[in-house]
Specification:
Number of strands of chain A: 9
Distance between the termini of chain A: 22 Å
Number of domains of chain A: 2
Structural class of chain A: alpha/beta
Radius of gyration of chain A: 32 Å
CATH superfamily of the largest domain in chain A: Amino acid/polyamine transporter I
Number of helices of chain A: 22
Helix content of chain A: 55-70%
Oligomer: homodimer
Strand order of the largest sheet of chain A: 7-6-5-8-9
Largest interface: A-B, 112 and 113 residues
CATH class of the largest domain in chain A: Mainly Alpha
CATH architecture of the largest domain in chain A: Up-down Bundle
CATH topology of the largest domain in chain A: Amino acid/polyamine transporter I
Shape of chain A: elongated
């Protein structure tokens, strides 16, 4: 707590009310938190805590760009079922994925301008599809953010562990420590986390572009070799399948993992400097361009050099090895940056999850604590909640990436589908407005658009394709763990709706629109349960007498000898207050008091309140709490739901 | 909660005080607890809940008798260091252990009569040696009871697991479940647990006596063979040592594990029917006689048949196998009962720990909750605490008996030493009283005793020998885990003394002997922090106005728009109450309120109380608690230690 000199208080008279206005103090409160996450920021500082395009790309693109590290390999693994000749289909498949990506990205670009307060798929679904699709989008995105953190950090740790196998037994601890670290950096603020993580993100970016660029140049110059001693192709199939449409669809679905992460910008628009929609849109386009280039380049080169999907050496590593030839340093840098970017992808989730949670909370579907901005102006509750839940997942899955992967990506694709469908519906509405007419939604305004039909078809196609991918993911990975997400999302939707009902119901009950004229409280019956006659009891008694003239002390008697002592002492110190003795043959302490109060409640008048004053001694040492029976706490539990009964603990401070 | 018809209340007038006396109700309160541990017992039923000699032997002897299952083996294991020829020393060693046992048992017999309220070593040390030795005795006994439960249950589970190896991964869970079961049976009452456990205890007893008896008879008849294919003697020594005095002392110390458990009766006298000292004394003698017979018999037969200490087959099993020859059923019964008695030994600890803890708590060295008798008249807190702590030990040591054994027995022997030393001092005092003179202690009266010198020497010797055993235990087992106990006991002593200081200090501060004349509370300043203007706030406001005319509402403003709305609403609903608006530039909620109250406290008059009324909505669903910020809870934490400030949560019930 900070102390303010009296001069900093200013008294204003408004009507008949005296209003103190506490001036912003010279220096903000300091504590251990200051040391950990930096000095508190005043609300007025909010605009300074936004980020520009350069840092924005680093923060929001890490997740999406990290997927280039494995997407090509995912395609090749599936095609391997039809033998290495089928690898020729990889590049065409990657082109069709980039086409789908283009539709999704363009749709998000429009979303960013239509809904400048962020929320992405959630907001689009809410405005255009209704409550349940919106909550489904929210639930799947939040789930996927949590999984992104767990998977990214675990795979970063897995890379470290494969280099230092003696760390294997500590991988869960290391993953938790890293999660905690990323959480701390994010609690300092999005600007701070961006600056910390921007450098490695850009090094990764440059390294990947360089690798693809050098590869293509060497190919054109005709001196790019085939990959030297590639790892053996191991498939789980004994006989090779034919190249069926289903196999190609499966390879396509697996390759769409390249698209995970592109939703983050649309959810996190509010992190950008003004004009934020424009800045966010530009960053989205940059990111999509880089992502498409890298993904196509890597898949193309993989085909040219004859890279083979393997558990022993990644496709990226094979390409880097072949491209750089004997420049071992460049090769090592490319491979190690790939490991680092996987770990950085966690940071993107920390930028997205808290903002989305705050939007859901603002709409009343999550606890409203998610809307509070912490001392550094970030949504601290969301950041901490994300870290805790990702930590739980890491512990449950023992930091094993293989076990977590099947849960991953379904959520993202479900949100893509809902977002595309929502935008398609929006175009349909735009097409049915006359020129100049406009339809006002909660968070945006729809104008007539002459190109509505083309746009509707594009988004409709995007919705259909992403829906197919979602289904293929859900079905093929179902037994490996996807069932958890398939079960979890409806459960979350139900929870969100229950929370919303609670808040709506509460708002209705607290509303002053239908106010009844309550009588003023005209009578206080005060009950004071005592365990003995001592200074603490007398302090409680003095307090009780100050709020009412109708005070009754209650003593629960379990031992006749003790009872006699209490009666004698009460004669001296009781100040003439009525003492009721309740015999408790079964040595119950709380129940007789509750029963007595219940009896009083039955004869209570509407304008009468029953107040229970519980004398309680408190001590400077927290541990002494367990040395005393927590009567007040238990009485509170027992009486909480009874209208017209109020409990007062009167503390008596003991040194 | 149970409801009582109005007729069952009776009003008595005592002086000017109306006293309701709640009659013992026809049927006691029922709940899930009734189903689990039986119907509640009235305090008046206490005498029926004591046990006679037959059940007493089963309850209190299990622990001691179970040690016959391993004590002989412990001696042989040590002697094995000098080769199998050294096994000849086992029987003489066991005779000297029985002699020591006789001294300790006779001393406890006198303790039982001198201190009929139980407490054993703790009480003897407190009356004769002072506070620190008494607390050391208490700490070491409590520690050992906890270890007895953990070790006994784990070794019982180990026996089961060696029969069904597929249960190995579940041994911790099984051990916890069994601990919980023994806890439940003990919560039903000592009589009930005695009845449940008496049958197997007596079967064990009969089987062991039969085994020894048949063995001796066959030996006398000359047809007892040597053990058939004994397990191979495995020692950790590569060369055999000489039989040194230290080796013999070490073997003696290990064999004294036969004595663990004999302290339980002296601690648990209050469990016996009246005349309880006599009954407890008789049971102690029976137990000692059986224990000595079995221990000598087993060690003797082990020597005669050439039994070998082994991890693969216990000495008891070798004896039973040899004695019963081809009566496989009798052999199996003897071995399985040995497993069961190990498990039963835990029950003895459940009879001893809660009573000892209650005695320490009554003296103010443990939280006074340990003195409460639960609905079944047992010391429920102690029973539950014992089960929880034993469970923690089981989890920490992964239910491995080998790892727990080194921690075990040091506590018992330390308490033996303190008890013997205390009794020796008592005889010295008795010797220095004149005939007919008496010295009154807190819990007993000392008379002159003509045989004081012999008794003092016997107990002094006992103290010296058990001290040597304690030291040998502590030193030889120190690196294997005994250091934990060696460190823990002083820590516990310090804790006990801190608790005692706290209670004494509290009693002093609460005492009315040095009462200051406090002024009556003549003025209430009421502060009501509001988060909005709604039904809940207005309910709080009505309450606030009913206890004082000086009410100030406080609103923490973080957003100018919200602030304007609140001001406008307050104009309509505020009933003319003063509203203070505190600006919070750093979005802090609790700190500005605390600061405001602190400022008021500085100008507070001695006869003035500051009451903070916090409107709080409560709901029937517990989970909604996490949907609201717990302002009242946080304010309470912040204001608990500030004298003259009282917090009232005014609940507003929401459906």
């Amino acid at each position: 707590m900070h102390h303010i000199p009296k001069e900093s208080m200013q008294i204003e008279e408004i009507n008949d009310q005296t209003v103190f206005q506490q001036q912003p103090v010279g220096s903000p409160p300091r504590s251990w938190r200051t040391w950990l996450i930096g000095r508190p920021l005043a609300s007025a500082d909010a605009p300074h805590e936004t980020i520009g395009k350069t840092i924005g790309l680093a923060v929001f693109a890490s997740d999406a760009l990290s997927s280039t590290a494995y997407a090509t390999q995912e395609i090749l693994v599936i095609l391997a079922a039809a033998g290495s000749l089928a690898f020729g289909y990889a590049f065409p498949i990657s082109i069709s994925i980039v086409a789908l990506m283009a539709i999704v990205v363009l749709s998000y670009e429009q979303t960013i301008h239509a809904y400048p307060n962020g929320g992405g798929a959630y907001i689009v679904a809410r405005e255009n599809l209704g409550e349940i699709p919106a909550q489904a989008a929210g639930a799947s995105l939040l789930t996927d953010y949590i999984l992104t953190v767990a998977v990214s950090i675990s795979s970063g740790v897995a890379q470290v562990v494969s280099a230092f196998p003696e760390l294997l037994p500590y991988r869960v601890i290391i993953a938790l420590a890293l999660t905690f670290l990323v959480m701390l950096v994010n609690l300092r603020g999005v600007r701070e986390s961006g600056i910390v993580f921007a450098v490695p993100s850009y090094i990764f970016l440059v390294m990947m572009l360089l690798t693809v660029g050098v590869g293509v140049v060497r190919l054109l110059m005709g001196n790019l070799n085939m990959v030297d001693s590639p790892p053996e192709l191991i498939t789980t199939y004994t006989t090779f399948e034919l190249v069926t449409p289903f196999l190609l669809l499966h390879a396509f679905s697996s390759g769409t993992s390249a698209m995970t992460g592109i939703e983050a910008i649309a959810n996190g628009i509010t992190a950008f400097k003004e004009p934020r929609s424009r800045n966010a849109g530009v960053v989205l386009m940059w990111m999509a361009g880089i992502l498409a280039t890298l993904f196509l380049g890597i898949t193309f080169l993989a085909g040219k050099i004859g890279a083979v999907p393997s558990e022993i050496e990644t496709v990226i590593s094979q390409i880097a090895r072949t491209v750089y030839g004997d420049s071992v340093l460049l090769y090592l840098l490319a491979v190690s940056m790939t490991a680092i970017i996987l770990f950085m992808a966690a940071n993107t989730a920390f930028a997205g999850f808290p903002r989305l949670a705050a939007i859901l909370a603002r709409d009343g579907f999550l606890p409203h604590q998610f809307t509070y901005r912490g001392s550094r102006l970030v949504f601290s509750t969301g950041i901490v909640a994300l870290a805790v839940m990702a930590g739980v997942i890491v512990v449950i899955f023992n930091a094993s990436v293989t076990q977590m992967i099947p849960l991953y990506a379904i959520g993202v694709f479900l949100s893509f589908t809902l977002s595309q469908a929502g935008m398609a519906h929006r175009w349909w509405k735009a097409g049915h407005l006359s020129l100049g007419e406009e339809q006002v939604e909660r968070s945006s305004v729809i104008h007539h658009d002459p190109h509505w039909l083309q746009k509707m078809i594009a988004n409709g196609l995007g919705a259909a394709l992403t829906a197919v991918v979602t289904l293929v993911f859900g079905i093929t990975k179902f037994p490996d763990g996807a069932w958890i997400v398939v079960a979890l999302i409806p459960l979350l939707v139900v929870t969100f709706i229950a929370i919303h009902r609670h808040y709506e119901n509460l708002a209705h009950q607290l509303s002053l629109d239908h106010v009844l004229i309550y009588p003023r409280v005209s009578r206080q019956r005060v009950i004071i349960p005592i365990s003995g006659v001592h200074q603490g009891t007398l302090a409680g008694l003095r307090y009780a007498c100050s709020i009412s003239d109708d005070v009754t002390a209650i003593y629960i008697s379990m031992d006749p000898e003790e009872e006699e002592k209490i009666k004698a002492k009460w004669g001296i110190w009781g100040e003439g207050i009525r003492l009721v003795i309740l015999k408790s043959p079964y040595r119950l302490l709380i129940e007789p008091v509750l029963e007595y109060i219940e009896k009083l409640c039955r004869i209570r008048q509407p304008n009468e309140v029953i107040t229970v004053v519980v004398p309680q001694f408190v001590s400077r040492h927290w541990w002494t709490g367990i040395l005393h029976s927590q009567t007040a706490f238990l009485l509170r539990l027992g009486l909480l739901l009874r209208p017209g009964v109020v409990i007062i603990e009167v503390p008596y401070q003991v040194e």
